[in-house]
Write a structure and sequence with these properties.
It is built from 9 helices and 8 strands. The protein is an alpha/beta fold. It has 2 domains: 137 residues, HAD superfamily/HAD-like (Rossmann fold), CATH 3.40.50.1000; 61 residues, DNA polymerase, domain 1 (Orthogonal Bundle), CATH 1.10.150. The strands form 2 sheets. Strands 5-4-1-6-7-8 form a 6-stranded parallel β-sheet, sandwiched between helices. It has a two-stranded antiparallel ribbon with strand order 2-3. The radius of gyration is 17 Å and the shape is globular.
C-alpha cells in the first residue's frame, strides 16, 4: 500500500522564504545598529525555529535576545510575503497529488501564525492542515507536531511520508516513525542530504510522485 498523506516542511521545501527572512532579520539588526546577515548565513541559520535563528545571529546568551526575537516575529509576520513564493513546480505537484486523492499537510518550525498565513496565501485549500511552532508543543525535530497532525487527520504512520530539505526534517521524520523524502532545491547541500540517507532525494517536485507507491 502506498502513502495517502504527504506532510511537507515549509521553508526550503515548498516555499522559498529566504529573502524575506533575511530582510526581516536585517531590519531588526540595522535598527539596533548591528551588522546585517548575508543570504548564506540566513540559509545556514534557519530550520530550527525563530529562536535558534536569533541565537545563531546574536549568541544564545545575548541580553537582548528575547526582545529582538519578539520584535522579529512581529515584523516578519507583517512582511513575510514580499519576496516569498512557491518553488517552481510545487503548485503543479500539489494539483497532481490532489488528483490522486493524496492528503497534504504542513509541519514547520516557523511561528504558527506565519505558517497559517503563508499556507492560506500560497496554497489555498491544497493543505488539509498547517501547523507551526507554538506554545505547548515541542518543535521539530521532536515528533510532536507531526503526530498531532496525523492524529487530527486520522492517519497511521505507514500512510504518511514526510518531505523536507534539511537534517532537521530527516530527524523529524525518523523520530515520528515516518519515511523521509529530501528535496535538493532547498536550504541544504545535496552532499549533506546524501550523508543522511533518506528514502529518496528528489531534484524536482514532480519526482515525488515516483516515490508514493
Amino acid at each position: 500500500m502506498g502513502y495517502n498523506t504527504v506532510i511537507f516542511d515549509m521553508d526550503g521545501t515548498i516555499l522559498d522564504t529566504l529573502e524575506d527572512l533575511r530582510a526581516s532579520a536585517n531590519y531588526i539588526l540595522c535598527r539596533e545598529g548591528m551588522a546585517p546577515i548575508t543570504l548564506e548565513q540566513t540559509r545556514r541559520y534557519v530550520g530550527n525555529g525563530a529562536r535558534v535563528l536569533w541565537e545563531q545571529i546574536l549568541g544564545p546568551d545575548h541580553p537582548d535576545l528575547d526582545r529582538l526575537l519578539a520584535d522579529f516575529k512581529l515584523w516578519y509576520a507583517a512582511h513575510n510575503q514580499i519576496r516569498t513564493g512557491p518553488y517552481a513546480g510545487i503548485l503543479e505537484l500539489m494539483e497532481a497529488l490532489r488528483q490522486r486523492g493524496i492528503t497534504m499537510a504542513v509541519v514547520s518550525n516557523k511561528p504558527h501564525e506565519s505558517v497559517l498565513a503563508l499556507s492560506r496565501q500560497f496554497f489555498g485549500d491544497y493543505m488539509a492542515l498547517s501547523m507551526g511552532e507554538q506554545a505547548g508543543i515541542s518543535r521539530k525535530p521532536a515528533p510532536d507536531m507531526v503526530w498531532s497532525v496525523m492524529e487530527q487527520l486520522g492517519r497511521q504512520k505507514d500512510e504518511c511520508v514526510y518531505v523536507g530539505d534539511s537534517e532537521v526534517d530527516f530527524a523529524t521524520a525518523g523520530n515520528a516513525g515516518l519515511d523521509c523524502v529530501s528535496v535538493s532545491w532547498g536550504f541544504r547541500d545535496r552532499e549533506l542530504l546524501e550523508q543522511l540517507g533518506p528514502k529518496a532525494i528528489i531534484d524536482s517536485p514532480m519526482e515525488l510522485l515516483e516515490h508514493l507507491d
